[in-house]
Amino acid sequence: MLRIVLVGIEGPVNLGVIARTCVNFNVDELYIVKPIASIEEALNYAARGRDFLLKARVTDSLEEAIKGVDLVVATSDEGYSAGDMLRQAVDLNGFAEKIFPRTRSVAILFGRESTGLTREEISKADVLVTIPANPSYPALNISQAVAIVLWELWKQRSITATNIPPLASKETLRQLLDLTVEISKLVMTTEDKITRSRILWRRILGKALLTEKEAALLRYWLQRVRRHISSDKT
């Protein structure tokens, strides 16, 4: 279970975009603590996240917003200060890969656009997470930060996206490779050249990330090439 907690959010545009992003990445719950932004105005920017935003829990205390979860995660662009125990952050990638998958329920806190989370608010979290960025200007717009965090967590949640075409199977790639070898044998004169051609095509097919549709078209094209060369030789 993934809960996003917005503390003192100030801008309605950001709030609307965040609600939309939560729907994009299948967030379970949205809590809003003492918002300054108008939720009614934010609905204008939420697109298909309007219903999700209308279901958000608005609370007067952070304690209520983090109740009932196994892990509370604060976020900050100030992830490190040598002498400050509160600023000993885990980078986002490390959190997403090593901590998040082992936790049943997580609340991720995002602070105000102007000042972020207070030290007291950060102290209520079990983990501090930061997004590595340009050291001279690491502060991100809050809606961008939420999107980056949710994208990294999405990759760990084992949810199948339907807007990405299926990649060609290993068996399909093997068939394509076999076709290239057959064509090489028709046009090349030595085993060494055929072997090098096979290695080249195997590398090309391995790097290409062909979809099933693309692989089917390539198979058709190779078959036509093979047929054409074979007919010329007879």
UniProtKB/TrEMBL annotation:
It holds the Pfam family SpoU_methylase. GO terms for cellular component: cytosol. The keyword S-adenosyl-L-methionine applies. GO terms for biological process: tRNA nucleoside ribose methylation. Gene3D superfamilies: 3.40.1280.10. Coiled coil: none annotated. Keywords: Methyltransferase, S-adenosyl-L-methionine, Transferase. Residues 2-151 form the tRNA/rRNA methyltransferase SpoU type domain. PANTHER family: TRNA (CYTIDINE_URIDINE-2'-O-)-METHYLTRANSFERASE TRMJ, TRNA/RRNA METHYLTRANSFERASE. Belongs to the class IV-like SAM-binding methyltransferase superfamily. RNA methyltransferase TrmH family. This is tRNA/rRNA methyltransferase (SpoU). It comes from Desulfurococcus amylolyticus DSM 16532.
